[in-house]
């Protein structure tokens, strides 16, 4: 996981300890998908799904200042490293565990890995060498640093620099859970950073989708000590506040996409942030604020074996697999969900989220995810 836990007030449900974190065009097909994904008594885990095509990121016309800054970089144009159909079925933390673990994951048709550029672990180089397609977090701000301390122009240029220096990225994500940085939610500043990066990428000839981190309701002070909330239901929230404060931001998000981390119970929606139903709620907000719904990418979702009884936990490996099936059944019937990345392949210091043990043996959650990926044709 990339950032510290959210410590929420009484009005907000907290995220997991540290979150690194179709409603069908055809109703009959959606019902069939849910029926196949949900576990049946004594049956093997099974899955079915919907196929949808989606394209590369675009951007609004860059300002002259951004174009001038990027003109010297035009020689090394960067394009998406893969063509793909969706929904994508991927994972976090697939690389760096050795070739045997990578082969097992890939043979399970889980072919996408999420990495963080600049991190010494689970690197893009090892991910690409292993054979994974890559979703990469770019220019991730330190968890303890508030976004108000970041210069948007410098940050946007940094995104371009990282992408030019790391060929092989198929989809980029503009930081990770930017709404938690420095324990303060600063949507307008994040919007400025994001738009600067999108404009710089276009000026540099980089045609890779750049995902906008989204959450729902946000505190007016700090996450640890909120003294009020900016809420979607009351004409506020993270996305609306960002778009209202940054002209041109809406078009950039629509052309690229949104990332969300809907940890929590299946069917739950708390503050348009927590639980699988928060994705549909966020989509409704996006349609109201942006005028349409861009592709949504669930770049983290999982259930922690160390947190029995918690909405984002599981009391057994079999329950973890069952919850995975139910969550994916809900998300894969949503026509706007373009990809889902499980958190994560192996356990780490934040909990027992993995679908694989350190010795390379797989848990039932891996088998469930593999069957979903296989059925979707990954």
Explain how this protein is built:
The chain is α/β, with parallel strands linked by helices and 378 residues long. The chain has one domain (27-376): TIM Barrel (Alpha-Beta Barrel), CATH 3.20.20.80. Helix content is 33%, strand content 13%. It contains eleven helices and twelve strands. The chain has helices at residues 27-37, 64-70, 99-107, 124-130, 152-165, 187-203, 238-245, 249-256, 278-290, 317-332, 364-376; strands spanning 52-53, 85-86, 88-92, 112-116, 133-138, 169-174, 210-213, 218-219, 229-230, 258-260, 296-301, 337-342. Strands 3-4-5-6-7-10-11-12 form an eight-stranded parallel β-barrel, surrounded by six helices. Strands 1-2 form a two-stranded antiparallel sheet. Helix 1 (27-37) runs antiparallel to helix 10 (317-332), helix 5 crosses helix 6 and helix 6 (187-203) packs across helix 7. The two termini are 25 Å apart.
């Amino acid at each position: 996981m990339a950032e510290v836990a959210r410590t929420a007030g009484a009005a907000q449900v907290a995220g997991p300890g540290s979150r690194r974190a179709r409603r069908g065009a055809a109703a009959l097909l959606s019902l069939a998908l849910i029926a196949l994904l949900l576990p049946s008594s004594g049956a093997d885990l099974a899955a079915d799904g919907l196929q949808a095509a989606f394209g590369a990121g675009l951007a609004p016309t860059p300002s002259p200042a951004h174009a001038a800054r990027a003109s010297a970089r035009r020689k090394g144009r960067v394009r998406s490293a893969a063509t793909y159909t969706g929904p994508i079925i991927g994972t976090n933390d697939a690389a760096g565990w050795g070739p045997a673990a990578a082969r097992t994951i890939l043979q399970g048709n889980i072919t996408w890995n999420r990495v963080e550029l600049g991190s010494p672990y689970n690197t893009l180089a090892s991910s690409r060498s292993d054979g994974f397609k890559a979703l990469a977090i770019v220019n991730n701000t330190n968890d303890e640093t508030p976004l108000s301390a970041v210069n948007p122009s410098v940050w946007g240029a940094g995104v371009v620099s990282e992408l030019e220096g790391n060929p092989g990225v198929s989809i980029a994500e503009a930081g990770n859970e930017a709404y938690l940085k420095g324990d303060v939610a600063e949507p307008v500043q994040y919007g400025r950073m994001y738009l600067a990066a999108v404009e710089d990428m276009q000026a540099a000839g980089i045609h890779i989708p750049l995902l906008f981190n989204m959450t729902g309701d946000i505190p007016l002070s700090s996450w640890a000590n909120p003294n009020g909330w900016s809420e979607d239901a009351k004409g506020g929230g993270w996305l609306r506040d960002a778009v209202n404060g940054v002209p041109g931001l809406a078009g950039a998000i629509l052309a690229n996409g949104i990332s969300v981390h809907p940890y929590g119970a299946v069917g739950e929606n708390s503050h348009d942030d927590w639980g699988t139903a928060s994705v549909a709620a966020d989509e409704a907000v996006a349609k109201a604020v942006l005028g349409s719904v861009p592709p949504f990418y669930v770049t983290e979702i999982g259930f922690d074996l160390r947190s029995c009884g918690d909405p984002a936990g599981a009391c057994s490996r079999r329950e973890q697999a069952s919850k995975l099936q139910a969550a994916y059944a809900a998300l894969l019937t949503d026509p706007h969900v373009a990809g889902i990345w499980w958190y994560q392949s192996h356990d780490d210091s934040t909990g027992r989220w993995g679908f694989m043990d350190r010795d390379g043996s797989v848990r039932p959650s891996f088998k469930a995810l593999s069957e979903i990926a296989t059925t979707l044709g990954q």
